[in-house]
Write a structure and sequence with these properties.
Elements (H helix, E strand, L loop, with lengths): L1 H28 L3 H5 L24 H13 L2 H11 L5 H28 L5 H50 L4 H10 L4 H14 L4 H11 L3 H16 L4 H58 L1
Helix pairs in contact: 1-5, 3-5, 4-6, 5-6, 6-7, 6-11, 7-8, 9-10
Protein name: Type II secretion system F family protein
Pfam families: T2SSF
Subcellular location: Cell membrane
């Protein structure tokens, strides 16, 4: 009786989750006011950012309420905001919390399906099944947070890979007589990648009337890379005080290339040690067996 009631409860929760997913997908596919206005305001900073935390129509949905509860329980909104900025995402913290709720529902559904499968196979354990379902929901929420950190680190690696080329091109443009902002516009028009996207967003903020030095200072404060922060601060100082910029950019590009070279050498050294594991524990024992086994067989035959 208890197993049947628990199965009915899990089925009800799974059906509710499917209904919520369908409702959310329909809300996402419906064009919002922001999506209709953004094409005419593409020069504004953060034009792709949603007008509210989740949007007026989704504020009172169960997903939004669950997202608010997760935000109050887990906290760390400033950390999430920094990682979203490092990812180059236009989503708000509330949008990310809604995504965490969706991941948690998926984890709960998978764990509940596994529990039902075990109970159908004859394993009658209600409490472990409930704990497994709750653990699946918690694992989904934490996996979404972990995925955000991975995306932020991957994007930072791409930025560090692109930085020397961008800095060299900008230094060449400045040395040719262009101003820092004009040189930056020329480089951004001919570049693609994560760093170029950040600089393109920075130029959009400057076009909307924000002071150039303040825009670069704000970019230096929100980036998670010290090298890029120094790059933005150097441009801000050069614009405000008229200091030479080409030599500074060349030096920064050379420093980044040197750091990348050292990291490559260290990675090669670690890979060399890791390559010794199959040699020592697999190839060497097989070689020893092939070398000594015929001798052992000969000794056995001679003694017999």
């Amino acid at each position: 009786m208890i197993s049947a009631a628990f199965g009915a409860l899990l089925g009800l929760v799974a059906g509710l989750g499917l209904v919520l997913a369908v409702v959310r997908v329909r809300a996402i596919l419906r064009p919002s006011l922001t999506d209709r206005v953004v094409p005419y305001l593409r020069d504004l900073p953060g034009a792709g950012r949603s007008a509210g935390p989740v949007g007026p129509s989704a504020r009172h949905t169960l997903l939004a309420l669950a997202a608010d509860r997760i935000d109050r329980t887990l906290g760390g909104a400033s950390s999430v905001r920094r990682r979203l900025d490092r990812c180059g995402s236009q989503a708000s913290v509330q949008d990310f919390r809604v995504r965490q709720v969706q991941w948690g529902l998926v984890g709960f559904g998978l764990a509940a399906a596994l529990s039902l499968t075990r109970m159908a196979g004859g394993v009658d354990a209600v409490l472990p099944a409930a704990l497994l379902s709750l653990s699946g929901a918690l694992a989904g929420v934490l996996a979404c947070d972990w995925r955000l950190g991975v995306e932020a680190r991957d994007r930072e690696r791409r930025i560090m890979t692109e930085f020397p080329t961008i800095a060299e091109l900008l230094a060449l443009a400045v040395a040719a007589g262009e101003g820092p902002v004009a040189a930056l516009e020329r480089v951004v028009r001919r570049s693609n990648g994560a760093l170029a996207d950040d600089l393109r967003r920075l130029l959009a903020e400057i076009r909307t009337g924000e002071p150039v030095g303040a825009a670069f200072d704000r970019y230096a404060s929100r980036t998670g890379l010290p090298t890029v922060s120094r790059f933005a601060q150097a441009i801000a100082v050069a614009i405000e005080r008229g200091t030479p910029l080409a030599d500074v950019l060349h030096a920064q590009a050379a420093d980044v290339r040197e750091v990348a070279r050292r990291e490559l050498i260290e990675s090669a050294a670690r890979k060399e040690i890791a390559m010794m594991v199959p040699v020592v524990f697999l190839v060497l024992p097989v070689t020893v067996v092939f070398a000594f086994y015929p001798g052992l067989v000969g000794l056995h035959l001679s003694t017999s």
